[in-house]
Specification:
Belongs to the glycosyl hydrolase 7 (cellulase C) family. By secondary structure, the protein is of the alpha+beta class. The chain has a 17-stranded mixed β-sheet that branches. Strands 7-2-1-11-17-16 form a 6-stranded mixed β-sheet, with helices on one face. A 4-stranded antiparallel β-sheet has the order 13-14-12-15.
């Protein structure tokens, strides 16, 4: 952390970047200094571009002896208040061919749009001219920032990008590059606070395309006619900006130029298409944008291409954050490094009501200039902590000793970099406080924040070996100026002197008593040192070190023995040593657990003994019960010694309970579950073993008051400890009684009693074996289950209580309808998955490899978080409305954006509402007015389990229906994160859109309503299996494997789509259609059975609508050779034949199989989604694309084929939404009546994207 400014001469500052923000800062700093009466600092500006505004690429070509220039950079600036314009700018009031755009869906009338002469490049040149910097370098890229003598040393690369070709020192640095450049700059991360680094990494940029075309002069008239005054073009389709460049200056005689800026959605779409077509994105983008321009010019593409003399494509990176980056409290629009006030970051990502706007650059530049002048005038004193180079050396040594240097020193490439930097910085602060004479860890131990960080690092599984190794080695090196001097294996190491030094620091023991188990588990280097200390203790207390034919102790203050029983027990353990079974180094101190002379040594030895007992898989030739008793006693002894010491020193009696504290003690004890004298789980990691431990549910018959101190209550379950359980039943006996074999010898046996049920599961390890030593100490049970949030598989998070939005359900018969309030629950796939604290199990499309090394371990580790009703709305766009539910398409929070959702109707808090629809009808009212082409508002039924798969998971799914688990459908989706209680991580492909695993989850599906405001269909999808079925390979029927019709479900279904079946005037937006999708409509679906009985086979699925008080019959099929107006087996067969489709519907059992699923019971699903696989073309456009649209069945709706891309929809229609209400189920003819209210027309922007030939007048 650079703390001191230049001590002599004029302060010298560096501005990194001469883009829009950097140039403005350079111009504003002299003015700000003058305003404050401060001397003007020396200013250096370094820019990687090739000249003023060099990043604003210009492209030129010689045409008939004249140079025609196309500036690819932005030509337009946008401001809310035009009075904020710097006085050196001379803008035109409005560009004839440009328009500034905000992130809002509609143009903001309060914004003023200007065009500077020759665009923003001219603005930057004018700003640098105003600044008159002392040094201005182009082709100079800063690659490194380091502290040197209280100043910043900036290393730079030359024109060819070589690293470290030179460096220069500065008093202050202002970084005006992009956020991504800042977060990757070497050395910068050490100056910024972790939260600042995290915020920088969260900034996202689009990579839109800019195509510059130099055209023949003959195109000038066409461009002028297109561009002049026609701002609408700038929001049209893929084009975000279309600028005819020659109007910015003198018109060239020989040619003209046009620049096409794509929208961010187009750029994302183009990248996807390029990957599919194996074409460079720039080539494909130029082609598509040129085609779009030709369409706007109303000329053939070939004619336009013939007029192109030169062209260039560049990627234009633009910040797209919706909210400004959280900045330092002293400034709203720039970021002042928390650890070093002489480093300032600025850019449009830090401010501006419109992301990426000139307003953001201007605001940030003003704030950065003010902060820079203030910092220079105040001398850059640190706000809190000092700095010593010694800490860096100590840290490096400890990282190396922890054998995790690769994890400890990483700063730029890890998802956990911000948290690791925070831990590292805090440790350094507390160990080396500037005003603290005592250089021990007293300060470290006094701060609860550091203890929290230790617990955080362990419980979250982040770099715990690194951080705990550092803490432990520091603890063990008191009184040594150099940690390298501390070596318990050194023959000259005086262990008693060490303990005296150790005991002299009460603060150290305070830290020890809050994280002792973490200390022991801090990695092999730490354990080794503790282990050696224990050995030394034995040696000094025994006349013949490590030789135990007898016991002769050296007199000292710790030689009091409590009882003959203790001596006998100790002798037995020592005898084990003589038999070659290496036990704990401090073994005989077991007998001294009530001594007061050296309690810390006792604690070290006792816990070391417990750990060593497990690690060396050894006991003397005793029984399994003896081993358990021994380990249990060791832990009790360690607790007693620490409590006794604290009591004697501080005169208060803490309940220092190793059994119930939320320490990482489970790591030490979990070794008991993972060390085997044979073979099965000897290689399992502690984390895996911890997870497997919690798969065991064992009844707890007795709870004796004597053990109440180690009794833990956790949620709805009561947990009893080992003494209760082990006194009543042996684990092997219990397993045999359950008809199961104990295939894992070293499993812990949890005791759990539920209020309403008992689940008992024998966990498997994949190999047969016998129950061997050591099995389970009751201490492990209480410690493990005290961490309720980490207790079992696919568990429930504790950060937010789950609440469910209400939704009404009517049940009807001939006598009328009765209303009951139900609720809906969000699908588990949308939920936050974490390890029980704040570490994500799943982030950015991929799984955490530590928490999720395999499907079962992942399910055991990961918790599904609940959502309040407020979060349902603010995070997912789900809210109750009158008699129904509303689903919004795009919902944006500070953590990102959510697109679409899927909810299920609940019967009660823990079970889905099950619908049995044979010989029944189902009715809903839908509001589709704000559902454009490419979206799908779906209401359908799937054969999910009523409990969300909780029962069939074998205990690994504790969340269940209450948290939306268990989804399946006839498409056998591969993107479900969990299936039957196991994580779908095998073969996980994070780069796929959406990310998918090798497993799919299949079940029967009945699509009642799949629709937007342009097209609709209802479709049965029978399957050859019953209930949810996890598939892999051919059974899934994946298109990528060319096995669509070899799977267990009918993926095509038998869809009744009015448009596809010939009636193109039946459903659409406006009064010209039979059913007007701009108004609410009631959808009635009847399931007709043979003989009109509940037990008869399903033979027909009928549809009609109610709107404006009248019943509207379904459309008739008008395809040659076909008749009908409903879904029957005969209709489906004729449809498949006419369209040339495979009749997989019949293969999978047709309506009879569909009816059987309906009779078993299905769950109601309501969703809003976009389609990254097929862009929803199968619903509302031409599909498949390789077929001629004139063929029967290919044309499915009026939408264009380029409007269903998710990126396009998310950018253009963020306010799209669907509403479902008045859900009714009942006997045939009971759920609807003629009559209804007529609603006002909605905004027709959601009716865009039709083919022009389909516009209805």
């Amino acid at each position: 952390m650079c703390a001191e400014s230049s001590s002599e001469g004029q302060p010298h500052m560096l501005i990194v970047g001469a883009g829009c923000t950097g140039a403005l800062i350079a111009a504003m700093i002299p003015r700000e200094a003058t305003r404050r009466g401060k001397p003007r600092p020396r200013i250096s500006v370094w820019e990687w571009g090739r000249g003023p505004a060099g990043r604003m690429t210009s492209f030129w070509a010689d045409v008939e002896g004249e140079r025609v220039v196309a500036d690819v950079g932005a030509q337009v600036i946008s401001l809310q208040d035009p009075r904020r314009l710097p006085e050196w700018m001379e803008p035109h009031v409005m560009a004839a061919d440009g328009l500034g755009l905000s992130n809002t869906e509609e143009r903001e009338p309060t914004w003023h749009h200007f065009c500077t002469p020759n665009g923003l490049p001219a603005l930057q040149r004018a700003s640098l001219q105003e600044a008159q910097p002392d040094e201005l370098h182009f082709h100079r890229r800063v690659v490194e920032l380091t502290c040197a003598g209280g100043r910043w040393k900036a290393g730079f690369a030359g024109e060819r990008g070589r690293r470290s070709v030179g460096s220069q020192e500065f008093s202050l640095v202002v970084f005006a590059g992009t956020a991504s450049d800042a977060s990757s700059l070497e050395g910068l991360c050490s100056a910024l606070a972790p939260r600042q680094l995290h915020a920088l990494n969260a900034v996202r940029y689009d990579h839109r395309l800019c195509v510059a075309l130099i055209l023949k002069q003959q195109m000038s008239g066409h461009l002028e006619a297109l561009c002049h005054g026609n701002a609408e073009l700038l929001m049209e389709g893929p084009l975000r900006l279309l600028a005819r460049q020659e109007v910015k200056g003198r018109r060239a005689r020989g040619g003209c130029a046009v620049v096409l800026h794509s929208s961010p959605a187009f750029a994302a779409e183009n990248l996807q298409l390029a990957k599919r077509q194996n074409t460079p994105p720039a080539v494909l983008g130029r082609q598509r944008l040129t085609e779009r321009l030709a369409e706007l010019l109303k000329m053939p593409v070939a004619q336009l291409e013939a007029a192109v003399l030169e062209s260039k494509v560049v990627h234009w990176r633009q910040c797209q954050v919706k909210r400004p980056l959280a900045s330092d409290a002293r400034s709203e629009a720039c970021l002042v490094a928390e650890g070093a006030p002489n480093l300032i970051l600025a850019g449009d990502y830090l401010a501006g009501a419109t992301a990426g706007s000139f307003e953001g650059c201007l605001e940030s530049a003003e704030a950065a200039a003010a902060a820079a002048v203030e910092a220079l005038s105040q001398g850059h004193r640190p706000r809190r902590w000092g700095y010593r180079e010694e800490y860096s050396k100590t840290y490096s040594f400890m990282a190396e000793r922890s054998e995790c240097d690769g994890q400890c020193t990483y700063c730029r490439h890890s998802n956990n970099q911000h948290k690791w930097a925070e831990i590292r910085t805090k440790i350094g602060h507390y160990v080396y406080r500037e005003n603290e004479e005592d250089d021990s860890l007293l300060a470290l131990a006094e701060h609860r924040e550091v203890q929290d960080l230790i617990n955080w690092s362990w419980l979250k599984g982040v770099n715990f070996e690194c951080i705990l190794g550092i803490i432990a080695l520091r603890l063990l090196s008191f009184g040594y100026s150099d940690p390298l001097q501390f070596n318990a294996d050194d023959p000259d190491f005086d262990v008693l002197d060490f303990l005296d030094t150790f005991n002299a620091h009460s603060g150290a023991l305070d830290l020890l008593t809050s994280s002792w188990a973490a200390l022991l588990a801090g990695g092999w280097p730490v354990f080794k040192q503790v282990h050696l200390v224990g050995k030394k203790l034995i040696d000094v207390m025994d006349d013949r070190p490590m030789k135990y034919p007898g016991l002769q102790q050296r007199p000292n203050e710790c030689d009091e023995l409590d009882s003959e029983e203790d001596l006998n027990y100790r002798d037995a353990l020592l005898y084990a040593h003589s038999q070659g079974e290496m036990l704990a180094p401090g073994v005989h101190l077991l007998a001294l657990r009530r001594g007061s002379g050296c309690p810390v040594g006792n604690a070290v030895a006792l816990l070391s003994l417990a750990l060593d007992t497990v690690r060396t898989r050894g006991t003397y030739q005793g029984s399994l019960k003896d081993t358990q008793n021994m380990v249990y006693s060791l832990i009790v002894s360690a607790q007693d010694t620490i409590n006794a010491w604290v009591t004697s020193k501080l005169n208060w009696s803490p309940f220092f309970d190793l059994f119930t504290t939320k320490w990482p003690l489970w790591e030490v004890l979990s070794q008991l579950a993972c060390v085997d004298t044979t073979r099965p789980c000897v290689t399992r990691s502690a984390l895996q073993c911890y997870d497997f431990i919690h798969r065991r549910d064992v009844p707890c018959p007795h709870r004796r008051p004597a053990f109440r101190s180690i009794f833990v209550g956790c949620g709805e379950h009561d947990i009893c400890t080992w003494p209760d359980f082990m006194g009543t039943m042996e684990p092997q006996t219990w397993c045999v009684a359950r008809g199961q074999r104990p295939s894992q010898p070293i499993r812990p046996w949890l005791a759990e009693m539920s209020h309403d049920m008992e689940e008992r599961v024998c966990s498997q390890c994949g190999q047969d074996g016998v129950l061997a030593t050591p099995a389970y100490s009751g201490i492990m049970l209480a410690v493990f289950l005290s961490l309720c949030a980490l207790a079992s598989a696919q568990q429930i998070g504790t950060h937010e209580q789950e609440a469910h939005p209400e939704m009404a359900l009517w049940t009807c018969d001939a006598g009328g309808c009765s209303k009951e309030m139900k609720s809906v629950v969000l699908d588990a796939n949308w939920r936050w998955l974490h390890n029980g604290q704040y570490t994500n199990c799943y982030k950015d499309g991929d799984w955490d490899k530590t928490l999720c090394p395999d499907p079962v371990t992942c399910a055991l580790n990961c918790h599904m978080e609940g959502n309040s009703e407020k979060q349902y709305k603010s995070t997912y766009g789900i809210q109750s409305i009158q008699d129904g539910i509303e689903l919004d398409f795009v919902t944006t929070t500070k953590y990102g954006s959510n697109y679409g959702s899927r909810v299920y109707m609940l019967d009660d808090e823990n079970n889905y509402q099950m619908f049995k629809l044979k010989n029944r009808e189902f009715t809903l009212t839908a509001d589709m007015a704000k559902m454009p082409c490419g979206l799908n508002g779906a209401v359908y039924f799937v054969e999910m389990d009523a409990d969300g798969g909780k029962a069939r998971s074998g205990g690994t799914n504790a969340a269940g229906a209450k948290y939306g688990t268990g989804y399946c459908d006839a498409q056998c989706p591969h993107d479900m994160k969990f299936m039957n209680g196991k994580a779908n991580i095998v073969g996980w492909n994070a780069s796929h859109d959406p990310p998918i695993g090798s497993w799919g989850i299949c079940c029967a599906e009945m699509d009642i309503w799949e629709a937007n405001s342009r097209a609709t269909a209802y479709t049965p999808h029978p399957c050859s299996i019953t209930g949810p079925y996890v598939c892999e390979g051919t059974e899934c029927g994946d298109n990528s494997e060319d096995a669509r019709y070899d799977g267990v479900c009918d993926k095509d279904g038998c869809d009744y789509n009015h448009y596809r079946l010939g009636d193109k005037e039946y459903y659409g937006r406006g009064n010209g259609f039979t059913v007007n999708s701009k108004k609410k409509l009631t959808v009635v679906t009847q399931f007709i059975t043979e003989g009109n009985t509940d037990d008869g086979d399903l033979i027909d699925i009928r549809r009609f609508y109610v709107q404006d008080g009248r019943v509207i019959p379904n459309s008739n099929i008008s395809i040659a050779g076909m008749v009908g107006d409903s879904v029957t087996d005969a209709t489906c067969a004729a449809m498949k034949s006419a369209f040339g489709d495979i009749n997989d519907f019949a293969r999978k059992g047709g309506l009879k199989a569909m009816g059987e699923a309906l009779q078993r019971g299905m769950v109601l699903v309501m969703s809003l989604w976009d389609d990254s696989d097929a862009n929803m073309l199968w619903l509302d456009s031409d599909y498949p694309l390789e077929k001629d649209p004139s063929l029967p069945g290919v044309n499915r709706g009026p939408c264009r084929t380029d409007t269903g891309l998710p990126a396009y929809l998310r950018d253009k229609y963020p306010r799209a939404r669907v509403r479902y209400s008045k859900i009714k189920v009942g006997t045939l003819g009971s759920t609807f009546l003629a009559g209804g209210d007529e609603d006002d027309d909605e905004d027709d922007i959601y009716g865009d994207d039709r083919r022009l030939s389909e516009v209805h007048i």
